[in-house]
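Help! Submission page says 'invalid entity' but I think these are all valid:
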Amino acid sequence: MSPRASFVQGDTSVMAAVYGPAEVKVSKEIYDRATLEVLIQPKVGLPSVRERSQEQCVRETCEASLLLSLHPRSSLTLVLQLIHDDGSRLACFLNAACMALMDAGLPMSCLFCGVTCAINADSEIITDPTAESRALMTFAIDSKEQRVMMSYTKGSFSVHELQQCIAVSQKASENIFQFYRDSVRRRYSKNL
Amino acid sequence: MFSPLKPEKVLLGPGLKRRGDRKLLVVKSGVLRHKQPHVFWVENHQRRYVPAKGETIIGIITVKSGDVFKLDFGGSEQASLSYLAFEGATKRNRPNVQVGDLVFAQFIVANQHMEPELVCVDSAGRANGLGVFGAGGLLFSVSLGLVRRLLRPRSDVVSDLQKLFPCELVVGMNGRLWVKASSVQQTLIICNLLQSCETMTTAQRQQLFRRAAQGVL
């Protein structure tokens, strides 16, 4: 039974599974830390350039929070399967990834979550958007100091608006971390 | 519970790491456990084993080459076991070990930088329960947390099991258990009971064991 997690956010739903630490090919091994590979499978079709760019975002966030130096010359594989997309894809991938890594028991220095923020035509800032917007941003927020670990933005916005969106996302991340806590508490409720 | 102002030595188990001089980092999610006077660790449902020195595991021989056996223990690489690391083994008197045999061994080298090494003798040269085993019986996997529960000095699960059927049980800290009872059906019953122990409260588990003892299962 490999460690897995399924994350549903509104109508967007993602499944994640983690394999490792396992053997790594000599061509991919890194002498002092683990090699993390992220694979994103879209709902239909083969992975394309968009999936590759999202894989890089998820991988860099995971590498920043995992303690990779504890497993040198090993490989960690994270597979993310998109079940249904209704906006907030990247944020959902990040949340599912974090929960799967927690379930796997891989050593992490902090948890992270993904929050999507949009600026609509009326210059209002909304989280978890589903409609069209002037600017769309996804931030990965860490659990210790609510700092931004990764940001992915599309559209046009001012610096002031960007700072406002970051503040809104940091506030929204508290709900997600509380959800993580509740899920883990439920998982271990039989052992308490 | 404990006073953080007293300068006591604290022993950190799995899931806790020291960061710098006085800081502690929790690296896994799970239930924080405490054993008097100052041992702390985090218990979780992790199944993937990471080798640690001194732990006893169940391994399967995969390669027999020259002076060394290679064992699969469910980790990221295979461990090596020298043919001289058995009780009474010499260069002329090689141990009778074949590929596919189950071996109960202990780690003498287990860190992230080196290939793990196992031995089947203790420091006095005696087997002390280590070595090849497993004619008959069933090998299966459980989570590492359950294995640690089984290995506790007065384990509740083991005492409940003892009241059930007579059986042989080998517990490997890599999450592998080997069970042999007097019949195949009893072996399978014990295997199913142990695998379901993880997701049950104490009361549910005791009720299940009672039903098994009455012969309902």
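Support: the input was valid. A stray whitespace character was the problem, and the output above is from the cleaned input. Residues 56-133 of chain B form a domain with the OB fold (Dihydrolipoamide Acetyltransferase, E2P) fold (CATH 2.40.50.140).
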